[in-house]
Amino acid sequence: MPATIILKKGKEQSVRRYHPWIFSGAVASVSGNPAEGDVVEVFAWDKTYLATGHWAPGSIAVRIFSFVKCSPDREFFSKRLKEAMQYRVNAGIAGKADTNVWRLVHGEGDGLPGLVVDIYGNVAVMQAHTAGFWHIREMIAGLLPEVTGGLVTAVYDKSEGTLPFMAKLNPSNGFLVGGNGEPGTVVSENGYRFRVDWEKGQKTGFFIDQRDSRSLLGRHSNGRRVLNMFGYTGGFSVYAMSNAELVHTVDSSAAATALADENVKLNFGDDPRHRSFTTDAFSFMAGMEREYDLIILDPPAFAKHQTALNQALQGYRRLNALAIQKIRPGGLLFTFSCSQVVSRDDFRRSVFVAAANTGRNVRILSQTGQPADHPVNIYHPESEYLKGLVLFIE
Questions:
Q1: Rounded distance, CA 259 to CA 255, Å?
Q2: 321-345 confidence digits (pLDDT tens)
Q3: Which terminal CB of the chain, N or C, has fewer other CB atoms within 10 Å?
Q4: Helices (H), the chain
Q5: Which CATH class is domain 74-187?
Q6: What are phi and psi of 217, to 5 degrees?
Q7: Other residues' Cβ atoms within 10 Å of the Cβ of residue 85
Q8: What is the DSSP string of 269-307?
Q9: CATH architecture assigned to 3-66
Q10: What is the rounded distance in angstroms from the CA atom of residue 322 to the CA atom of residue 316?
Q11: Dihedrals φ, ψ of 41, to 5°?
């Protein structure tokens, strides 16, 4: 029998509104002595059943994966994974002829909080962010070939860096299904080719969530001089190379800029229009003149916790002010935040202050977010982590 969680009176309302998190302050009592990652059943103060989820002894005590009584067995998770797959088929993502890199499971967005699964060709790279999904990782991995209709033939677990440190699970990255030890592969996104290193790369190896914004960039980069800051492995750079006058990629990681160079070469050969720089972004921008008329700012998350919010907003203001100040008249700025604790309004206000401090006239051309394979659960607004603005600078 699962352990039982009783909520304080009045604290059941968010669960009744299908929010998938229960915070520790809402818990009145715990019976059954659950360990981290164990399945628990949640009840209101009057003993009415509310939900089933994974237990954790932290700020978020329960992450809910079902709001109806269930047996969280192989059949249950197979059904949930099949639903995630069918959603991507219906959205026109899975099975797209020129794209074989996409996200199959996006945590709360797919009713599986704590689990991420990305598809790279025939390899699924999975990350458990909770002990609950790490404990059943082999079952999940065994289901993936089946729920994808045989598309997935190998599953790589990359949970070492995503599991709670205090859980002391001692995870080790590696293949759970198939695989010949290969650290990556070449994938296709909208016809462009990219080398992905899931072993050493950030996240699962590639920033899949910027697919739509990369496509938008390609429609605006014609004849422009493009600067891709925090360029990582050159995703935006490759799209811009289709029609730009020149493209420069900047990242502080030598491994990243080397892979950016390789990705440009995969698509355009030894094209002299592209050059990469391994250096600090702020230093590079501070030292440059008005030589670019399209700048991309896609920094790593400036704030991963609420306590760092103010510092993050200052970072966004400083970064965007530099770009707005340095860009050529008539230039375009693609600027993003991937910090979950920074709301869309927070980010927009930071960019507004940055623009006001430069004294330049700035208009919003577009507002962007995460693509359909990174769905936002309408009951869980926190899952909308990616925000973007396309600005016209006079």
A1: 6
A2: 999 999 999 999 999 999 888 889 9
A3: N
A4: 13-16, 74-90, 131-135, 137-147, 211-220, 235-240, 254-268, 281-287, 309-326, 344-358
A5: alpha beta
A6: -60, -45
A7: 23
A8: SS-TTEEEEES-HHHHHHH--S--SEEEE-PPPS-SSGG
A9: Roll (2.30)
A10: 10
A11: -110, 140
3-state SS class at 93: coil
Question: Homologous superfamily of 207-393 in CATH?
Answer: Vaccinia Virus protein VP39 (3.40.50.150)
pLDDT above 90: residue 202? no
7 dihedral zone (left: phi>0; alpha: psi -120 to 50; beta):
beta
Cβ-proximal residues to 270 (8 Å cutoff; 6+ apart), any chain: none
Give the whole-angstrom CA distance, residue 137 versus residue 193.
30
> Domain segments of the chain: what residues?
3-66, 74-187, 207-393
pLDDT, tens only, 360-376: 999 999 999 999 999 99
- 115-168 pLDDT, tens digit per residue, is 999 999 999 999 999 999 999 999 999 999 999 999 999 999 999 999 987 778
Q: Which two tokens stand for residue 110?
A: 């797919």
Task: Give φ, ψ of 371 to 5 degrees.
Answer: -75, 175
CATH topology agreement for domains 3-66 and 74-187: no
Of 69, 77, 82, give the one whose Cα is nearest residue 113: 77
Which sign does the torsion angle of CA 222, 225, 228, 233 carry? Answer: positive
User: If you search the block for the tokens 């014609």, which residue do you land on?
Assistant: 222
**Rounded to 5 degrees, what are φ and ψ at 108?**
-60, -30
Q: Which has the closest alpha carbon to 118: 185, 39, 38, 170?
A: 185
Is-above-0.90 flag for pTM? yes
Dmax (CA) for the chain in angstroms is: 70
Residues designated catalytic: 338
Instruction: At 154, list the tokens.
Output: 């190998």
